[in-house]
Design the sequence.
């Protein structure tokens, strides 16, 4: 970097330092602060927007029509800063305090998304995934006609896959160590609690493999699970391989809907 370039950088830094900080006190009315905070939000100046909208949520009267949207924009600014827990709490506050507002269903949905962002992998503590579930289910229950209902239900299915994956991976760890009894407990939980996930199919295949292993050799248990697998996934290659030689008769009617718990 040349001497001239260094001077230019220092000049820009100095000008930035001299620029007045965003101060809510300089706005004479709540309406003026709202407009200024919204402008900062639109320019992705998240910290300034948080400062402005946070003051508005504290100062605005409970019946002020600006209060729900101030909560909404405060939550959006928190999201911009990746403060997902605080964002979720702000969205939840909006939904609780303004249940009849047009933003209430959106707020519950966004609260669920904020919590879900905090559960980064199925192997981690699922606490935030569970909180996300609660918010999505609340939205679907309280606002069944919401245009976001299908999105919330899709998110619930995605979370179910993650919960199922968490239990499946634990069971698979026992399976690889040939601790089949413990593995089967987790695989059964996957099938029982998350029957509509793909992990349920995989868990049943693993159960068959465990039952048919030389250490267990529980052929009747394997046959029962295979009956369910053939009923649900008759052409699946993994099912055909795991249940080789155990396909039920073509006229069989005694096929359970799912493995016994």
Sequence:
């Amino acid at each position: 970097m040349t001497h001239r370039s260094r001077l230019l950088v220092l000049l820009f830094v100095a000008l930035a330092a001299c620029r007045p900080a965003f101060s809510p006190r300089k706005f004479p009315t709540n309406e003026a602060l709202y407009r200024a905070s919204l402008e900062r939000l639109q320019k992705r100046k998240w910290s300034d927007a948080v400062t402005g909208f946070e003051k508005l949520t504290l100062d605005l009267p409970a019946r002020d029509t600006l209060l729900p949207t101030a909560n909404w924009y405060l939550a959006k600014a928190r999201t911009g800063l990746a403060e997902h827990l605080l964002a979720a709490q702000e969205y939840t506050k909006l939904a609780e305090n303004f249940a009849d507002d047009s933003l209430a269903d959106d707020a519950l949905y966004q609260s669920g998304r904020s919590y879900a962002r905090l559960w980064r992998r199925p192997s981690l503590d699922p606490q935030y995934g569970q909180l996300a579930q609660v918010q999505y289910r609340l939205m679907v229950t309280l606002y069944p006609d919401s245009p976001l209902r299908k999105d919330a239900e899709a998110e619930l299915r995605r979370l179910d896959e993650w919960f199922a994956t968490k239990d499946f991976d634990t069971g698979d760890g026992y399976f690889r160590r040939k601790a089949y009894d413990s593995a089967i407990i987790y695989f059964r939980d996957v099938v029982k609690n998350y029957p509509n996930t793909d992990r349920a199919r995989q868990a049943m295949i693993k159960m068959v493999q465990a039952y048919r292993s030389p250490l267990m050799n529980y052929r009747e248990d394997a046959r029962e699970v295979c009956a369910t697998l053939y009923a649900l996934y008759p052409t699946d290659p993994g099912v055909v391989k795991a249940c080789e030689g155990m396909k039920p008769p073509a006229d069989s009617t005694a096929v359970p809907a799912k493995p016994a718990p």
